[in-house]
Structure formats: C-alpha cells, structure tokens
Design goal:
about 425 residues, alpha/beta, Alpha-Beta Plaits, TIM Barrel, 2 domains, eight-stranded mixed β-barrel, four-stranded antiparallel beta sheet, 18 helices, about 15% strand
C-alpha cells in the first residue's frame, strides 16, 4: 500500500547490512517529494584522530542518536568511512544539536574539536531539505559511487581462481563485510584451526621504577590475525550487526578451545566475550568443561557498548556469572566517561580504561581531578589501563593512581 511518508527503519534504525550508501541514496532521492520539515546532519567522524575512531566509539555515537530517531521518524546511516548521517522529520535544529553537543563532549579532547574557529564546519554539516536537497543528493551520490567502486574491486578479486579457503579481497582499501561474505567466512571457519589465533596478553602490576608483576592473563581472538588468515581485504567491522554475529561465532569457537589452554596458565584468566555469549548454551558447555580443568579464578570482560546497548541483559548475565564464581570486567571506558559510571548498580570486579596519546596532551586539570576522584572511589586496585604502547601511558597511569597495566609496552617489559 502506498505511503505518504518515508518508511521508518527497524528498531535499531540501521540500514540493510552492507548497503548504507545505497540506502542513503534511495533516502535522498525519495526526499525530493517530502522536503518539508526534513533535516539531516552529516557527522564527520572520519576526521577524528585514530584513537577516537575505535569500534566502541562508533557504537556509542550510533546509540546516542536512538532517542532522536524514535522521536522524529529518523534514520541513521553509518557510511564506509564511518561518517554518520542522521535524517529526521519535523525536528528543530536545537533538537538535533542537543545530541551533537553530547558528541562534542565525548570527543572534546580531539584536536578536531579544539577551539580554533573551524571545528563547527569540519565536524558536522547541516542540511535543510527545503533549501539544501540538491546538495544532499550529491553527497549521497558521491558516497554511493565510492562504495560501488569498492564492491567492483571485491567482485573482481573474488572471481579470480583461489587455491585456499581464504576470502579474497582487493588490495588497498578494505571492502565492507556483507551477508554473503559472512556466510563464506562461517564455512571457512568450520575447517580452520583457531588455536593459533587465540592470543594471550598479561595484565600486570607496575610500580614506579619496578618490574611488572603478572596478575591476570587475557585471552582473545585477534580480529586482525583472523582477517589476514581468512578474510584478507574485508573490513569485518564495517557493519555493526554482522560484526556482532561474527563475534558470537568466534566466541563459541574460543570457548571450545579454552578448557585445554587453561591448564597452561598459572594466573587468573580473563576472557573477552559478548554478553550474548555468556547467556548462550555454548557458555554452559564451557563452564562444565573448565571446572574439570582448572581452579584458577576467571574474569569475563564485556565491552561498554555491549553493556549500554542492553543494560537488562548485562544485569542478568552478571548475576548468572557471579553465581558461578566468575568475576566481571568492563572494557572500553575512557577517562572522560569513566567518572560517570554507576558502579553501585553495575557491581563490577574490574574496569578497563583505554589509553590514547591524546589524553595526556589535552587532559585539563579539572578533568584529571575528576578522573582521579573516580578512581579512588572505584578502588585503584580494580582499575586497569590498557593499550599501553609506551612509557607515557604508564606514567599517566601512575599520575592518576592506577597500578594495573596492559599493552605492548608491558609485554616488552615482561620479555626483558
């Protein structure tokens, strides 16, 4: 039956997997007959520094706009370069700007948003469809042309003969993950030994002028290694829903391999895992097997974006894990969001803060004090600074009261 308004997307407000650019062009074209009251904002996340363009940052951005999308018949498009375009109906600029201001706060330490007089134009572009529709269509056409070229390169590479079970991809730019590629990946996964892809990294206590002392060992599947082995040329994180499905498949395979691996570990283990996996039948099988293999304490690490996406599921998974003797850790925090955690409700055993070089260069005294106060309140012995690639990260951690560290710099210190 014909509709007089643009269709509202599904409850997640995401375009069809792998087709954000095509959906955006279709959306822009159909707006030609529905310009009144329509606005859009183009959030240029691709211009942020690399430390602020991690997957959990992008998911937080997308979740931030959820209330706006529900209230104003909105649609959100995450594009191939991780820019975001949000289109709404009958929303005032102030309504949209409330959410843009939240993003500015989230990324306020990024050089792009430092007060230099140009950040407004650089970070976001606004479109009033009654006057800017033609420009909006050109933007959609440009993005669609760019991703079409990537698909053509991928199709040409996939058509070439291959003597391995790898998913071929084009050199240079990575192609987005699509349902078809995900299906091929799952078939390849069934015949691949994932043991070499399960990596270990120690979490160590480091005192000033002291050698690191291992206290826990995180186990995880290296996404980068997995891509190189099975999916070269494919950006497996390009679509958040397909990537989440991929993570659950990898989690299940990792859980099957870990009981045997656990016998070789002499410190408590931490597992990087999704909340959905904790509530899955595969985890029950893992739980039964691991109890026969080791008595070491185990910590389950979940990503902050996973928690914020479904707080109810987290609370259930946490109680379920605690009843069986597992600890819970929250990964993916940053020094800006860390002070605002509701720790009484979350009942976490550990919290992990992501280190980024931009932090020490732009952290104001007020924000540093807020971070220190929050660390003291949360218990410094339960805070881990991760992704520490150099001594600068360790020095910063000591300044704010952190003594547990993880990262390549700590690995090098342990190797000595």
């Amino acid at each position: 039956m014909p509709r007089t308004t643009l269709p509202v997307p599904d409850q997640n407000h995401a375009p069809p997997p792998g087709g954000a650019e095509e959906s955006l062009l279709d959306y822009a074209t159909r707006l030609a007959n529905h310009k009144k009251g329509r606005r859009a904002v183009h959030i240029r996340l691709s211009l942020l520094s690399p430390g602020n363009r991690l997957e959990h940052h992008l998911r937080i951005v997308m979740n931030t706009f959820e209330p706006l999308l529900r209230r104003f018949d909105g649609q959100l498009f995450r594009l191939w370069n991780n820019d975001i375009i949000v289109g709404v109906k009958d929303a005032a600029i102030a309504d949209i700007d409330d959410y843009v201001i939240k993003l500015r706060f989230l990324f306020s330490e990024d050089p792009l948003l430092m007060p230099d007089g140009n950040s407004d134009h650089q970070f976001c572009n606004w479109f009033n469809m009654e006057s800017d529709h033609a420009e909006f269509v050109k933007l959609a056409q440009r993005y669609n042309a760019e991703v079409t070229l990537q698909h053509q390169k991928l199709a040409a590479a996939n058509a070439a003969p291959s003597k391995s079970n790898k998913l071929p991809g084009p050199p240079g730019n990575l192609a987005p993950l699509t349902p078809m590629l995900l299906e091929r990946f799952e078939k390849s996964l069934s015949g691949t030994d994932l043991g070499p892809l399960i990596e270990r990294q120690m979490i160590s206590a480091v005192r000033e002028k002291g050698a690191p002392i291992p206290v826990m060992c995180e186990h995880f599947i290296s996404i980068r290694a997995m891509q190189q082995k099975i999916m070269p040329g494919v950006d497996c994180m390009s679509d958040r829903w397909l990537f989440q499905h991929l993570c659950q498949k990898l989690d299940a395979r990792m859980l099957a391999a870990l009981p045997e691996i656990s016998q070789k570990v002499n410190v408590p283990m931490t597992l990087n895992i999704t909340i959905g996996t904790i509530l899955s039948p595969e985890f029950l099988k893992f739980d039964a097997a691991i109890r026969k293999m080791t008595r070491q304490k185990m910590i389950l690490e979940v990503q902050s974006i996973d928690l914020f996406a479904d707080m109810g599921a987290y609370l259930f998974a946490r109680d379920f894990a605690h009843e069986r003797g597992y600890g819970m850790a929250l990964d993916g925090l940053n020094p800006l969001t860390f002070p605002f955690m509701d720790r009484a409700r979350l009942k976490l055993d550990f919290e992990k803060i992501l280190w980024s070089p931009e932090i020490s260069r732009s952290f104001s005294p007020e924000r540093k004090k807020a971070c220190i106060d929050a660390i003291i309140q949360a218990d410094p012995s339960r805070i881990i600074l991760c992704r520490c690639d150099n001594q600068e990260a360790v020095d910063f951690g000591h300044e704010v009261g952190i003594s547990l560290f993880q990262g390549r710099h700590i690995d090098r210190m342990l190797a000595k």
